[in-house]
Design brief:
- Helix 6 links the parallel strand 7 and strand 8.
- It is globular, with a radius of gyration of 18 Å.
- It has nine helices and ten strands.
- The protein is an alpha/beta fold.
- The model has no long low-confidence stretch (mean pLDDT 96).
- The structure holds adenosine-5'-diphosphate (ADP) and magnesium ion.
- This is Phosphonate-transporting ATPase.
- Pfam families: ABC_tran.
- InterPro entries: AAA+_ATPase, ABC_ATPase_HisP-typ, ABC_transporter-like_ATP-bd, ABC_transporter-like_CS, MetN_ABC_transporter-like, P-loop_NTPase.
């Protein structure tokens, strides 16, 4: 197995607030890693460091052999290879669905409009929204918007996808469709790091579950071990609250 992402002793402070306190994390090619942990424990900060939306305070993050903590690294290139999906979709509301999906491939990868639209159609099919190509973003439900956001990220042909609580802002009846798209991606071998409170998804799809608390990884393992036989008292406590 090859490491896709290698994080060593990652620390992130906001002033006096020590948010990440030394994270070591290896993500293998094709691996699905699910990160769980209480609110405020640093999960989003960790994901945001992985594609340099945040600069680490110290430590190293190597993605595909590129040290992205090096200020000289070509961050735009790194980001093209790492797709990110946020809790609040972050779509461009004034653009159509197809414009949202084709914008980055046209602007950043130099694709023609026709190439980008052909791919957008395919991606919309894979997320179950083939009929929404020309739709306005505002006309879509939250679950549909999130699936467009996934299609938009995939349009850059990333080889890693980061998901930060992608279903937390959705009405319950929308959650299944979004998780279904993510499951399909995992089956196709996408390397994924997913922060979620959907423990069912973690049990079913994760190769490895990581419990983060107070800026540290306190426990990690296969979903079976984490959910059926948690060792750390803080993980036991967390699972008692969420399960
Ligand atoms: P989680 O995603 O696990 O809920 P976060 O990574 O969002 O946790 O936040 C962890 C801590 O970092 C919180 O105390 C939060 O207030 C702080 N924090 C996150 N982002 C920023 C920021 N941009 N500036 C200052 N503090 C931040
Ligand atoms: Mg968060």
């Amino acid at each position: 197995m090859t490491s896709k992402i290698k994080v060593q002793d990652l620390k992130k402070n906001y002033g006096e607030n020590h948010v990440l306190k030394g994270i070591d994390l290896d993500v293998q090619n094709n691996e699905v890693v699910v990160i769980i942990g209480p609110s405020g424990s640093g999960k989003s900060t960790l994901l945001r460091c992985l594609n340099r939306l945040e600069a680490p305070s110290s430590g190293s993050i190597v993605v595909d052999d590129v040290d992205i903590s090096d200020p000289k690294a070509d961050i735009n290139k790194v980001r093209q290879n790492i797709g990110m999906v946020f809790q609040h979709f972050n779509l461009f509301n004034n653009l159509s669905v197809s414009e949202n999906i084709t914008l980055a491939p046209i602007e950043l990868k130099g694709e023609t409009k026709e190439q980008a639209q052909t791919q957008a159609k395919k991606l919309l099919e894979t997320v179950g929204l083939a009929d929404k190509f020309d739709a306005k973003v505002q006309s879509l439900s939250g679950g549909q918007q999130q699936r467009v956001a996934i299609a938009r990220a995939l349009a850059m042909n990333p080889d890693v996808m980061l998901f930060d609580e992608p279903t937390s802002a959705l009405d319950p009846e929308m959650v299944g469709d979004v998780l279904g798209v993510m499951k399909d991606l995992a089956k196709q071998g996408m390397t994924m790091v997913v922060v979620t409170h959907e423990m069912g998804f973690a049990k079913e799809v994760a190769d490895r579950v990581i419990f983060v608390d107070d800026g540290k990884i306190l426990e990690q393992g296969k979903p079976d071990a984490i959910f059926s036989n948690p060792q750390n008292p803080r993980l036991q406590d967390f699972l008692n609250k969420v399960l």
